Structure formats: structure tokens, C-alpha cells
# Entry
Amino acid sequence: MKDSTSFAALELAIDNQDYERGLELAIALSENYHADVYIQYTIAHCLIQLGRADDAKVHLEVAAFLFTSSQDSASIEIDSWLAILRLLARIGLTSTASKLIADHYQKVKWDPESLEKIKEVNRVCLVIEEPTLALKVLDHAFTLYSETSLASSYLILVATAAHAADKEELEIQSYIKALEVDPLNTEVHSKLSRFLGRSKNWDMASDHIKFIQRLDPGFETRSIAQDFYNLSKVGSFDEQERLKQKWLANDIVEQDSRAPFAALLASDNGEFLLREAEEFAKWTLLLPNEQNRNATVKPPKPFDGSKIRLGYVSPDFRDHAVCHLITDLIHSHNRDRFEVFGYGISMSDNSPHRKKIISNFDKFHSLEESKTVDIVKQIHNDSLDIVIDLAGYTQGFNQTLFGRIGGPIKVNYLGYPGTTGHPNYDYILADPIVIPESYDRFYSEKVWRLDCCYQANSPSRRATEVAFRDTGLPEGAFVFCNFNGRQKINRETLCEWQKIVLACPDSVLWLLDPGSDARTELLKVLNQIQSRVFFAPFTDTPRHLGRVKHANLFLDSFPYGAHTTASDAIFSGVPILARSGEGFQSRVSHSIIHYAGLPEMFATTWEEFNQKAIEFYQTYDQKKRKNIENILLETDRDKHPYNINWTTRQVENAYSAMLAQ
# Structure
């Protein structure tokens, strides 16, 4: 007979979140009830809440075993099952969680009036990277929901699992079936818009957002970040601005999804960017309330003469801006001091860029098809001292990877121009321009500043010669340019550029061609200078570098400024007028032009920006052009963005100092 008084005291301690007392009571009860599922589960639960996840594992394994051995063959205690599954997923006991689901899901009597518990199982399956198992569970429950009012919600769950399983056809078919069941369902249209955005079908994604607004003008999106991003690719500037203002005012319902990268396009406000990153990071944590790693005390690496082992992780070791920027840095690392590993995740190609950067690593692992658990295992097997995330929250990132890596120092660098808001990162590599000391409070990582521009650049890049006549630009015009993608351009930026062109009679504006629909939207805003706007078609990188030199001044965008395109301009001897704000992403071009030798070429307000642009135009002549080219192309100068030896030494010094902290 159970000791009801002691069990009641234990339940009270847990209800009051007094986990020290709960652990004490549960351990005492385990002496007489060691084979009780609840006791073993509760010990594990308390240990996890007290930050002792490793100690919890054995108790949770025992609880899972006892649960399985105690269940009736025809049905299971679903609430206990789910409670154990949640904790197994949180502490990374993925194989035990997978077996517990596989052994019991066919015995579950799902509630035909609610999807909540099957949603819970679906979430666990996705956390433990078993989306195929999630699809099996959902398929088992198909007949229960397929002909009910929950059919569309059920199909959304199937689509979510299909996305995780890389079953794109099943994902889109699930959304189509959901619309057949309920064609006016705003949630399905919203989810489908996100799918189309991920598939880079921006036109159709934007159409679904517009359709939602017609169906229900008061519709409260639960994916404001993704909707804003989709509109930023091809949609209406007016609708984009409306969503931005709503988002910045935090006048939104609870969100089903967040996209920190989209926040960089919306604002340069440091508090807003940190909040969005932290909210997203919470979703990626396997364990809640994790302590910030850079607040913990770690012993310094003892100097034993061995090489420091660096690991660079990225989905962009391919024909991508990050690869173009960092290839020469990887090559330039001092092999007497460092051993350099590369880990390709998520995406790859067969381009010469990928082949070149792979050859620059001492050892490279192609893990694009690997599960997170296998990537973590490989990183641990390589005994790294420092692991560097070159993705952050950009396309192809792995949202739980850096939360699972234990041991090496973790650094946020280059790929994502902002804070991760994640407690498991130790440092962010920056410089005094992109993160002034007074802005440290906007970063969850400890800021480490290099004595040069933080952005590595590869001087081995090659340009293809492009004649002026092949640009389509008018002879004798002063060429203002910007080659950023449509997503970085907003109504405010366009209006300010238009003011500049209007004030400079012989000038034109040269932009990257965003496609017919987006081009129409751009020209609606640039309505006073339409005949003076020219579009450069997409082309390969060498040819693009060959045509950039025909511009006279690169005008920055805001709040997400030029990054790689700013480096392209410097490489071609073209000056940049930077528009500098509070956020990292709004200060990169300021850093690049500062270290390239023109520190005065930035502004902190649009009024100052316009004044400097017009003054530059008015004082421009061939002598000034030649002087600027000489400054920008003096790449062997200390701290120059293309002095890769200087940049590499600064990065290496930072790594060494981090280990000595």
C-alpha cells in the first residue's frame, strides 16, 4: 500500500516548483518504490529543473522501461507516456524516445474532439529528428480526423511533419487537401504562404497573404515575421510597411513561428532585435532556462604545444556569399598553430567555389544528409577547441545543433549579422564599428572585437571584364548604384534615393533587377525618376564584379545595409556611402568603408546621408575618382578589408585569447 501522505507532499512540492524538496522526497520514496514509474520520472524531472540533466538520464531510462513493462496490451496511459516523451526529447535520449513512441502509438486512443495530444507527439518526433515516425503516427490517426471539423488542422500537422521529412510533394498535397476541405481557412492560406516563401515562390506567397486580407481584414497572422519576409521579396511596399509597424509595436497575437533574419530587415533597434532572437532561441532549446555559457567559468586551455583545433560549420560551403568571403581566410590560417575542420550542413552544390573551399580545410566533412545527432557526434569525435557557426539564423541553419554541442567554445561569426539570443553561444566576432561598446547590451554573446573589419574578404576573387556599353547605362551619366536584393529595399530607402537623384541632374540609379513584379513595385515608389532607373540582370559573380566598376557611388540601404555587395564595390574601386544605425546589420558597410580608407563616408540620419551624397556628386571629377580608387585598391594596407593576412591574424589572435580566458 502506497504512503499517501508522502506522495501528497511530493506532488505539492512539484506543484509549488520546489524542486530541491521534490527531489529529496522522491529519493526517499524510491527506497520503497524504486519500480514506480512516477517516482523515477519525478526524480528525473527535478534533476533537470535543477540543471543536472546528465544525472537525470538513468532515472528517465528506468521510467521509460517501467512504463513499457507496466502497460496493458490494448491501451496506454497517454498522459504519463507524453510526460516521459517530453523529458526524453529534452535531454537528448532520442533512441529511447523513438522506441517508446514506436512501441505504443498504435495503442493510443486519440481524442476525436481534440488534436492537442497528437500535436504533442508530433512535436516530440520532430525534436528527436524522427519525422517519418511522426508521419506513421499521423497516418494511424487518419480515419479519426479525416471526415471531421478538425480535418484541415490535422492536414496542417501532416504538412509540418512532411516538411521535416523533406517530403515536399506530401507537404504541398496536404495543404491543397486542406484547402479543398476548407477553401476559406485563413490559417491554411497562411501556412501555404510560408511554404511558398521557403520554396522561393514569392509571387504566389504574396498572393496568399493578399487573399487572407480580403477574406478577413482583421486576420491576426501567427507568422508575422515570415509574412513580412515574403512581402519583402516581391510584395507590396505598402503592405510590407503595415506589417512592419504592427510588428515593431508588438501589437501581435502569440506567434506560431518567428524568423530573426526577417527582423533584421524590419528595424535596426537593438532591443527589438535581441527580443526576437531570444524568443526564437527559446524554441530551439532542448532544456528550458539554460544558463548563458559566457556567464559560466571555464578553465583555460593548458598550453601543451598542440595545435588549436577549429571547426567551421555552415550550410554555405557552395556558390554563396559566405563561401566567397571566407575561402581565403580558411586557406590563410597558420597551420603551425591551428588545425582547421569544415562541416557542411543542409545544402551543397558541385560548384568550383565548393571544391576550392573544401581543399582549403585540413579535413572536411560533408554532412548535408546527416541527422543532427550524427553531426554532433562527428564534432565531438574531432575534439575541437572552438566551433564557429557561419550561419546563425540564415537559410539552411540547424536550429538545435549548437544547443547540443558540448565542450568547445562556440562562436557566432560572419554568416548572421546579429545576436543569436542563444544561451549556448560564448562569443560573437565583431569590430568597434559594427558593435560599439555601448551596444554590448543588445547581444546575448560576449562581444569580441577585431582590430580590423570583422568581415573577412577573399582577394583571390576574379572579375570578368565588362565594357561600359554592355551595362545599358547612358553615356556621361553619374551612376548611383545599389546591388542589394529586393528584401533589403523598403519604401523609406527608395524615397531617399529618389530625393538624391532628383537633386543631381545628370545622375541615374542602377539597381539589381528583382524580376518583373518586384520591378513594377519599385518603379511605383520611384515614380518621379522612372526614366532614370536602370536594372542590372542577374549574372555570375565574376561578371558582376566586372561591371560594378562603372558605378560612381554605391548608396547604402537601411536598416539592412550592404554587406557582400559593399565588399564587391570596394573590390572594384567604387566608394560606398554607408547609412549607419544601431543594429549590426545596419553598420557593416560603415565598417567596410571605414577600414578601406574612407572613414568619413557614412551617415547616421537620412538628412545627413542625402547631404553627403549630393556633395559627393557636386565635387566629383576624374581626379577625385582616381584618388578614391587608389585608396580603395591599396589592399596590402594594414586593416584593409582585403588584406586577408591581417584579418586572419586578428581572427587567430581572438581564438587564442578566447581559450586563455
